[in-house]
Amino acid sequence: MQSAAFRILRSLPTRTSNSPKPALSCARSATRSRLCISRQSYSTRSRNSRQTPSPGTLLAALSHRQPKLPNSLRILGLPRRLFSTLPESTSQHTMANTTERLAALRALMKENGIDVYIVPSEDAHQSEYTSPCDGRREYISGFTGSAGWALITHDKAALSTDGRYFNQAEQQLDENWTLLKQGMPDVPTWSEWVAAEATGGKNVGVDASLLTYAFSKSLKTKIQKKGGGDLVGMTENLVDKVWGSERPARPAEPVIILDKKFAGKDFVEKIEDLRKELTKQKSHGLVLTGLDEVMWLFNIRGSDIPFNPVFFCYAIVTPTTTTLFINPRQRSSELESHLGEHVQLVDYDNVLTTLTALSENTVDEKAAEPQKFLFPANASWALAQALGEKRLEEIRSPVTVAKAIKNETELEGMRQCHIRDGVALIEYFAWLEEQLRNGVELDEVDAADKLEEFRKKKENFVGLSFGTISSTGANAAVIHYHPERPTAAKIDPNAIYLCVSPLYLPS
Asked: Where is this region: Disordered (predicted)?
């Protein structure tokens, strides 16, 4: 869905085929807006030619005033592919000393008969963004990027990540680590590296809750074919044992009830629709592990993961029962009133034992084959082990499909939130131009805070969907850059300014 600001831009006259092409294109979205100030300018053309007005002119027109910016100043969208052409940032990432952590981990590996240990970035729900308590790869390697795999043997340690994070990884990894630059020539993928290290019948260990069941099967096959090694799904996480008492506690923030005026459909109706699908599939039930899916199905929200409206939970829906697994500290009278008698609340940590019992208690000895549970592609290997591989049927979650088909209330909510956010963005752009034109000194934090201030004034504002990337000059080349004082740079009108701006709204 396009924002109001973007729709206005598209309604304006466009550049003709003979018009000079700017180095950068203008892009805008309500949830991830990008603002760049660059020295790029447009050549003067005849008054009869159709030229693209600068967004600065557009914003001034919308605010009923004409801008008087220097010729060198233009607001332009910055495609991510241009990041590699920008100069190196002067900001430095902190390097952690991982020697003691690796030594402790290797001792545990030896105790458990593990020769190679895999540390993924994801949590037990395969979340793209994780809570600090699930930052295992960051803890053991010192690398804070959002994507990557840490791989440890008894005498080696490797970190595999993609091109967005090569520079950052080189700065953050200490002498104990080798960087595997994903996608570069002659560099093995992390799974190839693991398979090679496991040749000779070695054991590769991983927390079974952090790999999907589907991926664990393919990885196990690759390791076995390479050199007779084996993949071991472990029930305890060795990095957690090394981390010990220093590991952050798992959050248990209050559960929020999403009003039907935003959802457009009562959760009881959604579950009834889901049960029709279970009947159609001749299934005994569905295991739900994706946090966004559980939030949508039950019309609930949370804040256990920074910038994400979710809380830690699982759900199991059968033809006759519905069970929601949550932290006992998150139970409240409001939640119980919302769910009523339709849903049974069970401790989050009991999901594995519950699945095992459910599998054992639903066996029909007269049936030729055991009735199966629908098992989504994002569900973990640990859940598959608890349920029993013969009792599951791998599918794309029917909740994923249902969630993707928006009802009219959701569609209208999306339209309205884009309009509200588009207004906030226009107000911010106009304010920023005004400040720079008047020579006001601003740093990257000033700009990010001001944008959030404009958004907070809008109806139904909840929060940001990730930390605003407000960066000037060389900092604009840093992926996922987040300005902090006292190192935040001053915004220079003669240098690029990049703002990747996020937002979350209930509607």
From this structure: 1-25
Q: What is the tens place of the pLDDT at every residue in 248-277?
A: 999 999 999 999 999 999 999 999 999 999
d(CA 176, CA 327): 38
Nearest to 479 by CA among 145, 174, 37: 145
DSSP 311-339: -S-EEEE-SS-EEEEE-GGG--HHHHHHH
What number of residues does the chain have? 507
Better-predicted residue by pLDDT, 201 or 11: 201
Per residue in 284-294, pLDDT (tens digit) is 999 999 999 99
Nearest to 382 by CA among 116, 126, 121, 195: 126
SS3 state of residue 396: coil
As a whole number, mean pLDDT of residues 195-214 equals 98
Q: Which residue from 122, 125, 127 is spatially nearest to 138, judged by alpha carbons?
A: 122
Closest by Cα among 135, 142, 134, 139 to 177? 142
- Stretch (H or E) spanning 347: strand 344-347
**Which 3 state secondary structure label does DSSP give 405?**
coil
**CA dist., res. 393 & res. 318, Å (int):** 14
What is the chain's mean pLDDT, rounded? 83
128 CB-near residues (< 8 Å, 6+ apart)? 122, 146
pLDDT band per the 50, 70, 90 thresholds, residue 13:
very low
Cβ neighbours of residue 178 closer than 8 Å, sequence gap 6 or more: 156, 157, 158, 159
Q: CB neighbours (10 Å) of residue 413?
A: 20
**DSSP H/E element including 333:** helix 333-339
